[in-house]
Amino acid sequence: MNSRKVVFLFFSTMLVAAVGGTIVGVTLNYEAYVGDGFANFFFGLIWMLGACAAISATAQMGFFAYLTLNRLALSLFKTKKLWNRVQIFLVAFVFFDLFYFRYLAYASEGDSLAGYLITPTLLLIYAAIVAYFKQRETHSGAFIPALFFMYVITTIEWIPALIIPEVDGTSWVWIYLAPLLVANTWQLMALHRLQRK
């Protein structure tokens, strides 16, 4: 990796995350954007693009933090097999944390635990799909680190949206998650392609 590729990765990640997050944001809040005329739609669109681009900066910090953590952990645990087991344990822990502790913290009377299982499960399925494609394009040892990054690191980056009280239903939880997922997927799949070049 040279500085030119790092700059390309930075700006391309910001662009795809801004576009992806804006599509989700406008879809979830369509009436708010279209209801008050073209000016409101235009400035709302610009604001949403800026907000999603800013969220992508969090994803980029998380990506480079994971790359550093991965190298540090490989030297600390001595074997890749042990570090992979630790990552699998952390994925399971975060999965449990995402549904059970959120249920304890936010469930109102009549809410079922099963309702809180949907989001962590869908996120895990998405992370596994991305990890599968990463493994297919690189090598078999890439699956667990990719799964860990897409699930655990994305969840850590998502925490600011998970802990704020609901302002506009639950839409901000998804508006915040969309650019994170797009940015992290893009970074993960672009890294080995840039290195090959």
Can you describe this structure?
By secondary structure, this protein is an all-alpha fold. It has one domain. The protein is 84% helix and 0% strand. The chain contains 7 helices and no strands. The chain has helices at residues 3-28, 30-34, 38-77, 80-106, 118-137, 143-163, 171-196. Helix 3 crosses helix 6 (143-163). The longest helix is centred in the N-terminal third of the chain and has 40 residues, at 38-77. The protein starts with a helix and ends with a helix. The mean pLDDT is 87. This is KinB signaling pathway activation protein. InterPro entries: KinB-signalling_activ. Keywords: Membrane, Transmembrane, Transmembrane helix. The chain crosses the membrane at residues 41-67, 88-107, 113-133, 142-165, 171-191.
In terms of topology, how is this protein built?
Blueprint (H helix, E strand, L loop, with lengths): L2 H26 L1 H5 L3 H40 L2 H27 L11 H20 L5 H21 L7 H26 L1
